[in-house]
């Protein structure tokens, strides 16, 4: 993998991880509200799961498989 590609993946990974943390905070705040919007909560959780999948994919691209 070229250095430029790896730097781009690292940058995207950092951005996605930050968004994942932000969603986690938003979900916690929504849980704490007196009358949480369940539809919005479900959408945030679904987005968080898709981010987790994308993060895992990028981490797999960055870290080469080592067959022992």
Tags for this model:
mainly alpha
By secondary-structure content and strand pairing, the structural class works out as mainly alpha
The oligomeric status of these chains comes to: single chain
Describe the global form. Answer: elongated
Mean pLDDT, to the nearest integer, reads 92
What amount of the residues lies in strands?
A: under 5%
Helix content: over 70%
Protein name: DUF465 domain-containing protein
Coiled coil: 2-61
Pfam families: DUF465 (PF04325)
Organism: Bradyrhizobium denitrificans
Summarize the structure.
The chain has 68 residues and is mostly helical. The protein is built from two helices and no strands. Helix 1 packs antiparallel against helix 2.
Give structural notes.
With about 70 residues, the protein is an all-alpha fold. It has one domain. Helices cover about 80% and strands about 0% of the residues. It has 2 helices and no strands. It has helices at about 5-30, 40-60. Helix 1 runs antiparallel to helix 2 (about 40-60). The longest helix is centred in the N-terminal third of the chain and has 30 residues, at about 5-30. The radius of gyration is 16 Å and the shape is elongated. The mean pLDDT is about 90.
């Amino acid at each position: 993998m070229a250095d430029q590609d790896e730097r781009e993946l690292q940058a995207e990974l950092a951005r996605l991880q930050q968004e994942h943390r932000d969603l986690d905070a938003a979900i916690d705040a929504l849980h704490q509200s007196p009358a949480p919007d369940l539809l919005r909560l479900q959408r945030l959780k679904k987005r968080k799961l898709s981010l987790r999948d994308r993060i895992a994919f990028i981490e797999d691209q960055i870290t080469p498989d080592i067959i022992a």
